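Hi, here's the filled form for the chain we discussed.

Project: internal
Contact: R.S.
Residues: 507
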Amino acid sequence: MTTLYRTIFGSLRDSELASPALTDDAQTLTYGELRTRVQAVAAALWARGLRRGEVLALCLPNSAEFAALFHGALLAGAVVTPMHPALSESDRRWQMEQSGAQWFVDADAAHDLLHPGDAAALPSAELARRAAELDAEAGPDDLAVIPFSSGTTTGRATGVRLRQRHLCTNVEQALPRMQDLGLRPEWAMLAPLPMSHIYGLTVELNMALRHRNHILTSARFHVSHLLDHCERFGAQWASVAPPILLALRQAAQDPETRRRLRSLRVLLSGAAPLDGELAREVSRLTGAQVVQGYGLSEASPVTHVSLPGQEDPAAIGTPVEGTEIRVVSPEDPQKVLGPGELGEMWVRGPQVMDGYLDGSGVDEDGWLRTGDLVRVDEHGMTWVIDRAKELIYYHGFQVPPAELEALLLQYPGIAQAAVTAGYDEQGEEYPWAFVVPDPGAELHPEEIMTWVAERVTPYKKIRRMDVRAEIPVSPSGKILRRLLRTENRSHVRPLWHTGPHEEDSTP
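And the returned structure, exactly as it came back:
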């Protein structure tokens, strides 16, 4: 077993040092330059007093700085908890408190660490020597990353404990499947998804660096960035989510745009369920294979990837090497179901976390309950049918209903609140709230949604609200979100939102 630094940078050959590693909005770094920056960050953090096992919150957009700070912090012995820069102050404080973060790195701090001044700069030979010493102290069982996930509940996100071995193993599990789909080391890769999310972190950053791809990324997603990168660098593959495929489908109606996308060979979709017809249409317009992966923060994240020549792009493929799955009855978890039967998927493998920060999440035999309802055929081909955990996926981001419901109940005049998924014209989800007023109270949805928007991270904003006389609940008082969700499928337009959908900006 090894560490991420050894896996990615320790294995660099001299012939690879001059190859481009990452291009962002401002610069291109070669593999040699990126390795030197990683070593410099580790030395700078150590000089400032960071010690092995301390938690560092990394709050940066996609950039060369993110790559250098993430891997440099790990090399220094830190445990990194990544944060999306759009997180609200409340969510930042929550993550800092829950993870026990002692260090916080944003854009200003990153600049200081990467540009220490001539007096603090060290020769490259000294950086390499110190890096070797630091890495020699690291091991596969070291805690490495604490991403936050809503897990198998719909409550507020909680930290996931991922060790060096979990991350290294998942890179080595996913890479052969991508190679089977045609991925080559010389390919350039579009990386529009946030690297602060475990999908972007593992697939866009770690796996791409391990495979010696040229990563093309921007701080904020815009279709024009993808088109420019395809033209300038001949990008052959991309990690995407369904909203990005929707944007590509719309853009590719134009013949000139299709010409600019002609270099693409493989589009790997994840973070949310992929509609089969959308996949086929994007493939037809771009000429690229559109394939799907599946994973969870709790599994580092990849558990499934499509197979070459797979007939149905709506299937998530089969488990990657070393991964076991079990389908159990939602009513009786002791009952294991057979091929074709609908049940909750459990997963087990070397990439699965030890547990959440509180120690829960994995049973004594190593099984993780995904909360997703699936059907699996006799060959292991898997289809996700629904999500038992009722999370809303807005542009690939998880929105926990219970968090918004708890906030709504703080608003004067609201007696009951429920939040579930609404669906727009393309079938994509957004948060839709239902509220019941106190007797005699008059509620104004626009005012309430503005109030909520001022208190949450942007992607958690409520996009539609209905005032109604009652909310369906079970005899025990649990909100029956599945009934509301079924109702919502017949309505496709938000009545109110804060502006145009944010495909072209930070969600």
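Let me know if anything looks off before we file it.
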